[in-house]
Amino acid sequence: MNKDRIKGSADQAMGAVKEAAGKLTGDAKLQAEGKAGKLKGKVENAVGGAKDAVRQAARNLDRTLDLDSVARAGSAVRDAVRTRPVEALAVAAGIGALLGALIART
Predict the structure, then answer these.
(1) CA atoms lying within 13 Å on the CB side of residue 32
(2) Angle, CA of 78, 83 and 90, to the nearest 5°
(3) How confident is the prediction along the chain (106 residues), in pLDDT tens digits per residue?
(4) 9 in helix, strand or coil?
(5) How far apart are CA 39 and CA 44, in angstroms?
(6) Residue 104: exposed, middle, or buried by beta-carbon count in 10 A (0-12, 13-18, 19+)?
(7) How remote is the C-alpha of 61 from its chain's centroid?
(8) d(CA 11, CA 20)
(9) How far is CA 75 from CA 17, 49, 70, 79, 80, in A?
(10) Which domain holds residue 68?
């Protein structure tokens, strides 16, 4: 678990609180802020998951690989996730669905 996943979970929780408070008080703006906070948290959590997956994949690589190449690949993935978080979330969701389907088959 990394700081993005922790922050994402915290933002999701805070968003849920704001959304509930907005519903209770009839404050549409607060409710919308809560929904936005929950979405932001989900994206941050997905980015953190992608980072964790990249780190784990790098750990599993054969030691004979050029470490500079691995670092460049990790940087490229990190930059792609930062610049296109929605696409990264979609990729993470697809991978999760695929893994879930594979696990369900066993």
Answers:
(1) 3
(2) 80
(3) 778 888 889 999 999 999 999 999 999 999 999 999 999 888 888 888 888 888 888 777 655 566 677 778 888 888 888 898 888 888 888 888 888 888 888 6
(4) helix
(5) 9
(6) exposed
(7) 23
(8) 14
(9) 35, 15, 9, 6, 8
(10) 3-105
- Distance between CA atoms of residues 69 and 67, nearest Å: 5
pTM for this prediction: 0.53
pLDDT (tens digit, 9 = 90+) per residue, 62-71? 555 666 777 7
Q: How many domains does the chain have?
A: 1
Burial 25-39 (b: 16+ CB within 10 A, else e): eeeeebbebbeebbe
pLDDT for 68: 74
Question: pLDDT at position 64, please?
Answer: 54
DSSP percent split of the chain into helix, strand, coil, nearest 5: 90, 0, 10
Residue 4 near residue 52, CB atoms below 8 Å: no
88 residue type, one letter? A
